[in-house]
Here is the input.
Amino acid sequence: MYGFHTDLSASTRWLRVPLSTLLFYPLNTDMDLSGISVPFHPDVSEEAVTDTTENTRLAVKIEDYLWPVRDTAYKTILDRARVNGNSLPKISKELLSGILTNCCQLYREDALVLIRDQKVSAVHGGGENDYSVLPIDALLNKLQTVLDSRFPGSTFLNGYSDHALVSAKWSMPEQTEDLIGTYLSRLASTGDALLAEKLTPGITFTTSDTGVAGAKVSAYLCGKRMSVNIGSCIQVDHRSKKTVDDFGNALDGLFAKFGDAVGKLMKLMDIQLDYPVNAMTRVCKALKMPTKAACEAVAMFEMATGNGPATAHDVYMAMQEILFLCKVGGMPENKLMFISENLTRALTVKWNDYDCAKGVNL
Here is the structure.
């Protein structure tokens, strides 16, 4: 994975240009592309242009050449132009390209343009304290160095990458006793010895060059069937002149932050719920979990417990089925990541506020 992103970084362009010089053009499937007076950059293939005519249908002139606009850049372009609204997707690309061009010309500031794989993938703010570039390969290298030195025995499990988001997972089996030993002992003492035997600590790394996320490391518990995300440990945003070294410095606190995340999970074991099924349903609704998967997870939990008393920890573990069901249902990896992150908000909700006798529908 590191090699892939090293090669990708080498072919990536970051251009800082005046925002007012960006000129947008429509690209429609039925138009004669030869009629566009501005040439596409020599690195842009006909295939990339054709693909864009079927997606964003926009191109942007940067300096002397046109570049197709990727869907990941759309929101960042709207942010730079200071335009938004539900009507924008409904108007023609001819009209939209004119609006974007005219609005960008209103502002005397720089834009930081990301060009990757023959398309514009993002248009960030180019001011001194705006977007900070944190190369993904450098972040991965820094994280691996820290894991090798401070968490020996860490094993890379898998990685994921698309045009918007990158993620990678490591397990840390040799750190089980130090990181989650107390939690596992508590599980075993409450009758969950079988679950305790299956869990090992791990981390998930996520980042993005397109404004979707900062450089983030989250803690999780790795089981044989599914992983349990227990919250963010480290996050460095692409702002305020942040560097890869800042990310490395933040990693110094990874051990302590992991302990804090485990502590939040353990606190759920002390929260008794009289109506756990109703509480689970209400929390799923509050967190806007996918309806179908949430309904199935609630039904499975009700079958297992019979709606008798349970702890918030029991409910939180049962909610992990939502992710499993979404994954089995073929949900894209990037959406699964956002659901997983949203699910961790259940670690800090006021569970007693959701523990009501009256049921509610999702």
